[in-house]
C-alpha cells in the first residue's frame, strides 16, 4: 500500500504504540500470572472513584447531562467554562489568568500533537526549528508526534550520584543549544524518571526561552496543582511565554480524556484553529465535570489528601520490593531519585544485553516493562543509559510488583558482566 511519509513514520515501530498494545494484550490474563509494570495508568482507588461518581451524579440530577450529550461545544471549550477555569486556576497557578488563556483538549496528548508541530520543523520564513528537550530521558509520547523528522535536540544530561544505588539527572546548561530552538519542552515531574527539576533550574530555562523569544512548554500532567506529585519541590506558577498543560488523567480519570492548556491568548487562539480543524469540538464530559470540580475544589483536595499520600507510600513499597530482589541477586543497580510522578527509572550498569532485549526476555515471562531506549529523542551522542535503563510503574499491587521484581532480577543477573 502506498502511504504518505507521515503515515509511514507513525506506523513504524514506536514506543507509545507498543506500550499501549502491551497494555491491551496483557489485560485479560488471570491475576497472578502477569506483571503489568509498563503502562501509565493511574492506580484504581475506590475512595477516589466514589468522589468522581458523585460529581457525575450531580451532572445527571442538575440536568447538565442533556446538553452534555446533545451539543457540540466550541473547539477548545465554551467561554463560560474557560472563564470559570481561569478564575479557579489563577489561585493555584499564582497568576492573572483569564478565559482567553485557557483551552481544553481531548487529553493533553491531543494538545501536544498540535503544539509540537506549531513550533518545530520548517517555519513560515523557511528556517528549520528544533524542539529542545533540556533533559533526556523525556516523555515517550512526544517523540512520534511531529510531522517532520529530526526535530528533537537533546544532550547527555549530567549524572549526579545522590547516594548508594541512587542518582539524578541534571541540566547540562553549557551544552544546551538554543540557537536553532523553536520551543523548549519539559515534563515536571518527568516521565519516565520521576525527576522534578528544581524551581531555580526551571526558571533558568524560562529566562532562556524569553531571551530567544520562543515558548516554554511545561507539561504538568503529574505536577501541580493536581495530582501534585512533586515531592518536596516547589510548584510552578504560570508566566507569560509559558505554555502549561494539565491533565485529568493522572488524578484517576484517563478515560475522560481531558487536558487543559494555559498560555498567552495568542497561542490559545492558534490552538483553537487546530481544535476546530482536528477535533471539531472538545468532548463535553471533562468540561462538565470541571464545573463541579472547581466549585468543590475536588481535584486539589483529592490530590493533597488522598493521591499524594497514596502514591508516596506505593513508591516507597515498590522501591523496597525491587531493591530486595536486586540485592538477592547481587545486582549492580541504581534508581533515579523518585521525586514524583508514577514511575521508577532504573539503571543496570553491568547489563550485557540491550534494554530492548531485556524487555523481550521479560515479556516472554509475562512481565511487562518499558525499555529505556525510547526516551532519548534528539540525542546523537553515545550514552550508556540509553541501553541500560528501564522504566517501571509502581502503580500496581504489591504481589504483582514482587512477581515482576523477582523475574527482572533473575534475567538481569543472568545477563550482567562481573564488573
Ligand atoms: C508526561 C505526560 N504528559 C502527557 C501525558 C498525556 O496525558 P493525557 O493525554 O492523558 O492527558 C502523559 C500520559 O502518560 C504523560 O505521562
From TrEMBL:
Cofactor needs: pyridoxal 5'-phosphate
Gene Ontology molecular function: any one: pyridoxal phosphate binding
CDD domains referenced in this protein's UniProt entry, alphabetically: AAT_like (cd00609)
GO BP: any one term: alpha-amino acid metabolic process
Annotated keywords: Aminotransferase, Pyridoxal phosphate, Pyruvate, Transferase
Enzyme class: transferase
UniProt xrefs under InterPro entries: Aminotransferase_I/II_large (IPR004839), Class-I_PLP-dep_aminotransf (IPR050859), PyrdxlP-dep_Trfase (IPR015424), PyrdxlP-dep_Trfase_major (IPR015421)
Documented EC number(s): 2.6.1.66
GO cellular component annotations of the record: cytosol
Positions of the Aminotransferase class I/classII large domain: 180-407
UniProt entry tagged with the keyword Translocase: no
PANTHER family documented for this protein: AMINOTRANSFERASE (PTHR42790), VALINE--PYRUVATE AMINOTRANSFERASE (PTHR42790:SF4)
Protein name: Valine--pyruvate transaminase
Organismal lineage: Bacteria, Pseudomonadati, Spirochaetota, Spirochaetia, Leptospirales
Amino acid at each position: 500500500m502506498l502511504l504518505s511519509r507521515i503515515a509511514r513514520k507513525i506506523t513504524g515501530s514506536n514506543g507509545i504504540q507498543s506500550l499501549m498494545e502491551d497494555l491491551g494484550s496483557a489485560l485479560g490474563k488471570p491475576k497472578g500470572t502477569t506483571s503489568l509494570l509498563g503502562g501509565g495508568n493511574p492506580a484504581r482507588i475506590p475512595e477516589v472513584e466514589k468522589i468522581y461518581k458523585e460529581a457525575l451524579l450531580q451532572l445527571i440530577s442538575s440536568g447538565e447531562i442533556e446538553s452534555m450529550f446533545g451539543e457540540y461545544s466550541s473547539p477548545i471549550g465554551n467561554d463560560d467554562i474557560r472563564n470559570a477555569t481561569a478564575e479557579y486556576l489563577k489561585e493555584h497557578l499564582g497568576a492573572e489568568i483569564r478565559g482567553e488563556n485557557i483551552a481544553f483538549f481531548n487529553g493533553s496528548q491531543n494538545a501536544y500533537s498540535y503544539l509540537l508541530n506549531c513550533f518545530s520543523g520548517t517555519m513560515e520564513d523557511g528556517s528549520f526549528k528544533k524542539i529542545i528537550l533540556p533533559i533526556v530521558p523525556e516523555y515517550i509520547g512526544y517523540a512520534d508526534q511531529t510531522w517532520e523528522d529530526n526535530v528533537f535536540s537533546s544532550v547527555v544530561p549530567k549524572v549526579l550520584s545522590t547516594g548508594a544505588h541512587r542518582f539524578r539527572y541534571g541540566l547540562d546548561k553549557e551544552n544546551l543549544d538554543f540557537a536553532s530552538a523553536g520551543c523548549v519542552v519539559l515534563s515536571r515531574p518527568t516521565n519516565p524518571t520521576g525527576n522534578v527539576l528544581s524551581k531555580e533550574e526551571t526558571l533558568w530555562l524560562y529566562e532562556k526561552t524569553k531571551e530567544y523569544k520562543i515558548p516554554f512548554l511545561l507539561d504538568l500532567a503529574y505536577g501541580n496543582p493536581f495530582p501534585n506529585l512533586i515531592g518536596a519541590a516547589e510548584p510552578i506558577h504560570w508566566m507569560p511565554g509559558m505554555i502549561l498543560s494539565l491533565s485529568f488523567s493522572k488524578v484517576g480519570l484517563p478515560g475522560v480524556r481531558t487536558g487543559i492548556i494555559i498560555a498567552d491568548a495568542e497561542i490559545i487562539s492558534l490552538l483553537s484553529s487546530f481544535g476546530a480543524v482536528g477535533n471539531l469540538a472538545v468532548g463535553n464530559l471533562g468540561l462538565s465535570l470541571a464545573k463541579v470540580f472547581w466549585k468543590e475544589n475536588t481535584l486539589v483536595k483529592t490530590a493533597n489528601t488522598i493521591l499524594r499520600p497514596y502514591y508516596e507510600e506505593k513508591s516507597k513499597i515498590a522501591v523496597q520490593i525491587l531493591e530486595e530482589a536486586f540485592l538477592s541477586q547481587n545486582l549492580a543497580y541504581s534508581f533515579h531519585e523518585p521525586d514524583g510522578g508514577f514511575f521508577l527509572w532504573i539503571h543496570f550498569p553491568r547489563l550485557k544485553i540491550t534494554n530492548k532485549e531485556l524487555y523481550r526476555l521479560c515479556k516472554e515471562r509475562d512481565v511487562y516493562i518499558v525499555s529505556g531506549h525510547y526516551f532519548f529523542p534528539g540525542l546523537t551522542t553515545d550514552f550508556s543509559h540509553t541501553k541500560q535503563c528501564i522504566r517501571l510503574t509502581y502503580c500496581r499491587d504489591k504481589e504483582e510488583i514482587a512477581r515482576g521484581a523477582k523475574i527482572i532480577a533473575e534475567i538481569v543477573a543472568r545477563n550482567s558482566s562481573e564488573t
